[in-house]
Specification:
The structure is a single chain. The chain is mainly alpha-helical and 248 residues long. The protein is built from 8 helices and 6 strands. Strand 2 and strand 3 form a beta hairpin. The protein starts with 8 loop residues before the first helix and ends in a 6-residue tail after the last helix. The model is unreliable at 205-215 (pLDDT under 50).
């Protein structure tokens, strides 16, 4: 160990102290020859005399005490696995800074940084800031209706291929902007599972006001142009004559 090429420098110095002591030299002489402090020579000679070669290695240090207990880390993880609405936070999903702020407000820890929360959540693969959409299918005829739509995407109608001069017209009601309530609650995130949000809404969540209370909508006044009407009728007649089959 004292002359090995792969020996660490600190071990080499300590073993040289032991070899000098084995030759019967005093601590003062070893200090002059190695350039070490007298207390350092005395310490390594004493450790070697007590435990031998294992005594030349560094002892295990306890280090700095942990600033957070395992209970505090578990409570922060449990907070991240709950929906923000249950904690009274006006959020749709948690983020690491928001979890750290909420943990301090609830008294779980006096102060915890967002990086510490991120490290705790990464241990259990928790990602409360992610969500996955899911829908409960309640229509018993969903398979039949979906098959018809998928066939039209593949340009097939009643097991027959559509021709080049045949078209598929998709007509639906205009987008509703009224407030709707979701039929199913949002599921909180868990271990290696993102938060699941259901987008199925009830249509009767918005009650429109009576017709008598509504303000009359002014109808736009547009001058009548007979040429525009004739062009529109001509386009309709030409389209009907060209399209033989129009699935809806």
């Amino acid at each position: 160990m004292a002359y090995g090429h792969k020996t660490e420098h600190r071990l080499r110095v300590r073993t040289q102290v032991v070899l000098h002591a084995a030759r019967g030299r005093s601590n003062a002489r070893i200090t002059r020859e190695t350039g070490l402090h007298l207390d350092t020579v005395r310490r390594w000679r004493g450790r070697f005399a007590e435990t031998g070669l294992p005594g030349l290695k560094d002892r295990q240090c306890c280090g700095r005490p942990a600033p957070f207990t395992p209970l505090q880390a578990t409570e922060v993880k449990a907070l991240a696995c709950r929906l923000p609405a249950k904690s009274g936070a006006p959020l749709s999903r948690w983020s690491c800074p928001e979890v750290a702020r909420e943990a301090a407000e609830q008294g779980i820890a006096p102060f915890v940084s967002a990086s510490t929360v991120r490290r705790w959540l990464a241990q259990d693969a928790l990602k409360p800031w992610q969500h996955r959409s899911w829908i409960f299918i309640t229509d018993p005829n969903f398979r039949t209706k979906a098959a018809r739509v998928l066939d039209l995407y593949a340009r097939t109608w009643q097991d027959e291929r559509l021709g080049d001069d045949e078209y598929v017209i998709s007509a639906d009601e205009k987008t509703s902007i009224q407030t709707r309530c979701r039929c199913h609650p949002t599921l909180a995130p868990g271990k290696a599972r993102a938060m699941r949000v259901n987008h199925t809404a009830r249509r009767d969540a918005y009650a429109p006001s009576p017709p008598s209370e509504r303000a009359p909508r002014p109808s736009p006044q547009r001058p009548h142009d007979p040429r525009r009407t004739r062009h529109r009728q001509a386009r309709r007649r030409s389209r009907r004559s060209e399209d033989r089959r129009v699935p809806r």
